[in-house]
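WARN no homologs supplied; continuing
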Amino acid sequence: MSLGESDILISNTELVPGREIVEFYGVVTGNTVRAKHIGRDIMAGLKNVVGGELAGYTELLQDSREEATRRMIEQARSMGANAVVNVRFATSSISQGAAELFAYGTAVRVR
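OK structure emitted
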């Protein structure tokens, strides 16, 4: 459980420990589609030869998760929720070199 942007609690479990769910608002989502960068591809190719973390892609995925989560939180807030439970992430390939990161959960009000 973590405190999202300002007052929205985020949990990857069905409940928020120590809180009671008093209202359900429904599924909320956030997504972003990102394309690979040619500079990152060149560095990734070099790393594939010598091994090691692909830091450029790690950073890209972290930024994507943050953006998708922010959008999900905005949707929950617009519904009147103060928490999102059962948060999950999914990815899918959109086209060669582009992928979607999708965040979703259930918007609720807790006390």
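Residues 55-79 form the longest helix (25 residues).
OK
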